[in-house]
Design goal:
Elements (H helix, E strand, L loop, with lengths): L3 H24 L16 E2 L2 E2 H28 L3 H31 L4 H27 L8 H30 L7 H28 L3
Length: about 220
């Protein structure tokens, strides 16, 4: 069976992810009486805007779906351990990505800059902050490496693997934002978040391989 910590972290991740997407939808101005995007309408439901209604759906469904997905990966992990490890790694990665985007948006809001060289600097700062928060989660939960012997060497390897992930992350984000540029009518700020999300997946894929086979190998 799943441990209590598995269930709790899955629920927290699902709820935080739901909150993130709710705020993202609000930024897209998907509210009653305002401009509408794609399949959403400007209708109201029981006096509440469509966006608020969707927010409640996300808040209820995301935590449940996260726990179900983790449970399925746990069952599959009985035969292929890496599947369960990858699922837990992804949960930690989601939390770190949201922290990454939170710091990125904070710097963008403070400076009013969402592109160019400063964006690359902001993305680097947010990535470093998020990565520092990942070490304990990846070590003790995702890969369950409880021993503390040789932790200095281990952290050094973690840093080097993460440094490569940092280059991938910032490089992809900078390319999407500065070279591709805003698409689908999105504002520079929202496109900066798209760049951050795309970059996060690229960095996470590399980091999982490096952490499993180099840093936290059995």
């Amino acid at each position: 069976m799943l441990k209590k910590i598995d269930i709790v972290l899955a629920l927290i991740t699902g709820e935080i992810t739901a909150l993130f997407f709710y705020n993202l939808l609000k930024d897209l101005n998907l509210k009653g009486g305002e401009n509408c995007v794609l399949i959403f309408t400007c209708a109201s439901i029981n006096g509440s805007s469509v966006i608020d209604f969707l927010g409640w759906i996300l808040a209820v469904s995301f935590p449940i779906l996260t726990v179900i997905c983790l449970w399925v990966s746990f069952l599959l992990g009985k035969k292929f351990l890496w599947i369960f490890q990858a699922a837990k790694y992804l949960l930690i990665g989601v939390l770190a990505t949201i922290m990454d985007l939170g710091v990125l948006n904070l710097l963008i809001n403070i400076s009013g800059i969402a592109a160019g060289l400063y964006f690359s600097v902001f993305k680097g700062i947010s990535f470093i902050v998020a990565t520092c928060s990942k070490y304990a989660g990846d070590k003790f939960w995702a890969f369950e490496k409880m021993e503390k012997k040789g932790i200095g060497k281990e952290f050094g390897q973690f840093f080097l693997v993460t440094l490569v992930g940092f280059v991938i992350n910032v490089g992809v984000a900078s390319f999407v934002v500065n070279n591709v540029g805003p698409q689908f009518g999105l504002t520079p700020k929202l496109w900066a978040n798209v760049g951050g999300i795309v970059a996060a997946f690229g960095g996470m894929a590399w980091n999982f391989i490096g952490y499993k086979f180099i840093v936290f190998k059995s």
